[in-house]
Amino acid sequence: MSTSPAFQTRETLKPLSFDPSKLDGLSERLIRSHWENNYGGSVKALANVKARLAQAAGDKDLPPYVYNDLKREHLVRTGSVVLHEVYFDNLGGNGTAGRDERRVIADAFGTFDAWETEFRRIGAGLAGGSGWVVLGFNAHTACPENYWLADHAHGPAATLPLLVMDMYEHSYQMDFGAAAAKYIDAFFKNIQWEAVAVRLAAARATNAGQA
């Protein structure tokens, strides 16, 4: 019996779009461990959960609260997979934002530096714990905004991620120990702003089409 698209699974990892041995200040060992173990573990877990959901959907005797345990895991694992893929795809660059990205961000935050200061500040506040920092395009306000995410399960409504920084300790501990500020500096040196530009253009086009 075929599985409907909503329950189909994928167990293959999205390849890195850059050479992890050539990042500035982030080791290949760190990146490969993060990609293979943390992101890879989420990909496999999501596939397992969706396969179980496909089976459970046809079980009329399964109590709703048991089914919702699977749906909770579906939400958490989906968030982890998506955010990790966006994170890795916005690495591998030289850290220099293009003129259009700088202008759009400056229009939203007053200056580009004001945006960067807030983004870094959110990351510093997550140090030693877990979560994500996301620059997202909010379709409701038609404006880029920075967001604090405590985990994979909770994100801003009507928002497409433009730039994502992982602040779970697994993203930096191997290289920096507890020195999260050094990781944030290294992250900024390696931002692939071309990827951000593509996401920004797509978000603005989608928003314009819905206006």
SSE inventory with pairings:
Elements: H1 28-56, H2 64-89, H3 99-109, H4 112-126, E1 132-138, E2 143-149, E3 159-166, H5 173-176, H6 180-189, H7 193-210
Task: Using brief descriptors, characterize the structure shown.
211 residues, three-stranded antiparallel sheet
Describe the overall structure.
The chain has 211 residues and is mainly α. It has 7 helices and 3 strands, in the order H-H-H-H-E-E-E-H-H-H. Strands 2-1-3 form a 3-stranded antiparallel β-sheet. A hairpin with a 4-residue loop joins strand 1 and strand 2. The longest helix has 29 residues. The chain is globular. It starts with 27 loop residues before the first helix and ends with a helix.
Approximate shape: globular
Q: Looking across the biggest beta sheet, what order are the strands in? A: 2-1-3
Q: How much strand content do the residues show?
A: 5-15%
Would you tell me the overall average pLDDT? 95
* Helix and strand sequence: HHHHEEEHHH
From the alpha-carbon coordinates, what is the Rg to the nearest angstrom? 18 Å
* Assembly level: single chain
